[in-house]
Amino acid sequence: MVGRLQGKKVVITGAGAGIGRASALLFAKEGALVYPTDRDLDLVTQLVGTPGIVKAIRLDILKKEDVDAVAKEIGRVDVLFNCAGWVPGGSILETSDATWDQAMNLNVKGAFWMSQAFIPLSLAEKKGLSIVNMSSAASSIKGVPNRCAYSVSKGALIALTKSIAADFVGQAIRANNICPGTVDTPSFRGRVNDSADPDQAMKDFIARQKMGRLGTAEEIAALALYLACDESVYVTGQEFIIDGGWCL
Q: Are 243 and 179 in contact (CB under 8 A)?
């Protein structure tokens, strides 16, 4: 099938690399008008020139004034993909207040502010909106060692998504979560390379995946496409686990 997002207006946070970038390219290929955003403007600028990529936008989701300005510039969208996030490590005893706050801000408050900015635009025009939030299997779904602040923040994002879905279910506004396992992205590679023994860290990550491999950004983007397009119009408030069997 082609053109699954034909003519639909999409904004994606964290579109400079990994899942966000793969989703921007796939959505554009499927006919969407995509506004990729990222704190690093250079990364999203690289997407410009691809058919369907309208404009690269620098956006720091930790600054509410930036979020509001972007919503004002872009206007109503059909799809909001809150993909930006951060993966801190550590147990509860190793988690500082600063790490906790940063995880909550990047992984929850950013999506909160983006949704708060774009939902009223859809309500005003009485048009539908699909919100796709990037949560994780490491959340309220599955306890994972050394992921305290990260898992709590991603569990909170699931709760936020359900709240939005419940509040606007009768107004054509949907909200769903993607909950991946371990995905091979530049961010993941960076965490592995920063470990004491990168080779062993990579082996350990692969070993915990029951399929014996990591997921790819393109595989997660394919699920995001389904949740973004009208094929999933009867779906809201759900968590979609895509983890290679990690939760089994």
A: yes
Q: Which of 35, 41, 30, 44 is nearest to 9 (CA)?
A: 35
Task: Tell me: pLDDT of 1 over 70.
Answer: no
**Concatenated DSSP letters for 138-200?**
BTTTB--TTBHHHHHHHHHHHHHHHHHHHHHGGGTEEEEEEEE--EE-HHHHHHHHTSS-HHH
Within 8 A by CB and 6+ apart from 220, the residues are 19, 22, 23, 178, 180, 183, 242
Band of the pLDDT at 38, cuts 50, 70, 90? very high
Residue 234 annotated to the active site: no
Q: Give me the domains of the chain, ranges plus CATH numbers.
A: 9-184+216-242 (3.40.50.720)
- The CA-atom distances, in angstroms, between 15 and each of 26, 27, 193 are 12, 12, 22
pLDDT tens digit sequence for 46-91: 999 999 999 999 999 999 999 999 999 999 999 999 999 999 999 9
Please, are residues 177 and 165 in contact by the beta-carbon 8 Å criterion? Answer: no
Element (H, E) at 128: none
Strand blocks (E) in 48-158:
57-58, 79-82, 129-134
pTM over 0.90: yes
35, 150, 226, 234: the active-site residue: 150
Q: What are the residues whose beta carbons fall under 8 Å from the beta carbon of 71, sequence distance 6 or more?
A: 114, 117, 118, 121
AA identity, residue 171: Q
